[in-house]
Design brief:
The structure is a single chain. The radius of gyration is 16 Å and the shape is globular. Helix content is 64%, strand content 13%. Strand 2 and strand 3 form a beta hairpin. With 108 residues, it is an alpha+beta fold.
Length: 108
């Protein structure tokens, strides 16, 4: 039997950036982002999320700022202008790819 876990993990890696960008259309901090993704069926480990956020910010796709409201300071992330454009383009690519994959999986 083929180990499916590795292949599922590879599929998830390919969509994590798009998943994260989709949830940062509104400003969020790391924990709230993890909760939003998990709630929608895309759980992500802290050890994966925070390095990804730092990488996306370094690439200019995210903006961040520190806010302290009723508790410890938190770093809030949101899409930059470039990140919003990439999100739009990746969303279009994803829709096209999903259509192709649906046809392939249905045997058309």
């Amino acid at each position: 039997m083929v180990a499916i876990a590795k292949h599922e993990q590879d599929l998830r890696k390919g969509v994590l950036v798009l998943a994260v960008l989709s949830q940062l259309r509104e400003e969020q901090y790391g924990y709230s982002l993890r909760q939003a993704l998990a709630k929608r069926g895309m759980p992500i480990e802290e050890g994966t999320l925070y390095p990804l956020l730092r990488r996306l910010e370094a690439q200019g796709l995210l903006a961040s700022r520190w806010k302290a409201e009723n508790g410890p300071p938190r770093r809030y992330y949101s899409l930059s202008t470039i990140g919003a454009e990439l999100y739009r383009e990746l969303s279009e690519s994803w829709a096209s790819l999903a259509t192709v994959m649906s046809a392939l999986l249905e045997g058309e």
